[in-house]
Amino acid sequence: MKKYLFLILLISCTAFSQKKTAKANPNLESITLGGGCYWCIEAIFENLEGVKTVVSGFSGGTTKNPSYEEVCTGKTGHAEVVKITYEKSKTNLDEILKVFFTVHDPTTLNRQGADVGTQYRSAIFYSNESQRKTALEIINELNKNKVYNNPIVTKVEPFKNFYEAEEYHQDYYEYNQNKPYCRLVIQPKLEKFEKVFKDRLKKK
Q1: In Å, what is the CA distance from 98 to each residue of 30, 77, 142, 147, 185?
Q2: Of 54, 55, 98, 113, which residue is least crowded by CB atoms under 10 Å?
Q3: pLDDT per residue as tens digits for the range 50-84
Q4: Is CATH 3.40.50.300 correct for 26-198?
Q5: How many whole angstroms separate alpha carbon 85 and alpha carbon 67?
Q6: What pLDDT does 14 receive?
Q7: What's the pLDDT tens digit per position in 125-163?
Q8: pTM for this structure?
Q9: Cα–Cα nearest to 106, from 121, 127, 90
Q10: How far apart are CA 88 and CA 99, in angstroms?
Q11: Taking each helix axis from N to C terminus, what angle separates 38-45 and 93-103, rounded to the nearest 10 degrees?
C-alpha cells in the first residue's frame, strides 16, 4: 500500500506538461515499455485515459521480424513490450510511467512472477532525451523513497526497433478473459490499476 500511496502523491503533484516536438501530430507521443508478459501491460494501458493505441510486440534485440516462438527462446535479445501512443493533452509520460511501476515488479531481474527469461525483463525504451530524463528521475525518486524493498532493476535504453507481435496477441485479454492466465494473472493486475487510478480510467 505504501508504494501505491506514494505513486498517487507523485501524480497529484505533477503538472501535465511536456515539450512539444515537431511531428505530424504534436499532441501525440509514443513510449515503448517492457514489464513482463505484454498481455498484462496491454490490458492495463488500454484503460488509461489519454492513451490512444497500445500495440504488443518485441523490442531491444537483434533478430529482425522475430516470431513469438523465437522470442520465447530468449535468444533474440528482444523483450515482450507494448508501444503506447498517448495524447499529451490528456496524460503525460509521468503518469504513464507511474502506472507502469504500479502494475509490475521492477525489482526482479528478467522475471515477472512465473514468467522467467530476458524476454520478460523490465525495460523503458526512450525515443528522446526528455523521455530518458523523466524515466531516470522517476526511478531515482522511487529508490530514494524506498517504495520497494529492493532496488529497481528496470533498464532505460534508447529505442532501436519495434516488431509488432502476431495478430492473435493483440487485445489478448479482451478476447480471452475466461482463460486461466487472464483470470489468475492479468485480472488481479487490472483490478490493482483500477483501484489506484480510479479517477483516470478511460470512459467507455
Answers
A1: 16, 26, 10, 12, 20
A2: 113
A3: 999 999 999 999 999 999 999 999 999 999 999 99
A4: no
A5: 23
A6: 47
A7: 999 999 999 999 999 999 999 999 999 999 999 999 999
A8: 0.88
A9: 121
A10: 16
A11: 130
34, β-bridge pairs:
123
Cα 81 to Cα 123: distance, rounded to the nearest angstrom:
8
| Tally of residues, the chain | 204
Residue 153 cell numbers, joined: 532493476
Catalytic residue among 37, 40, 72, 182: 37
Distances (CA, A) of 194 to 65, 187, 191: 34, 10, 5
Three-state DSSP string of the chain? CHHHHHHHHHHHCCCCCCCCCCCCCCCEEEEEEEECCHHHHHHHHCCECCEEEEEEEEECCCCCCCCHHHHHCCCCCCEEEEEEEEECCCCCHHHHHHHHHHHCCCCCCCEECCEECHHHCEEEEECCHHHHHHHHHHHHHHHHCCCCCCCCCCEEEECCCCEECCHHHCCHHHHCCCCHHHHHHHHHHHHHHHHHCHHHECCC
Q: 85-131: per-residue pLDDT in tens? A: 999 999 999 999 999 999 999 999 999 999 999 999 999 999 999 99
Grid cell digits, residue 27: 499532441
Phi and psi at 35, nearest 5°, equal: -145, 50
Looking at residue 203, what is its pLDDT? 85
72 belongs to the catalytic site? no
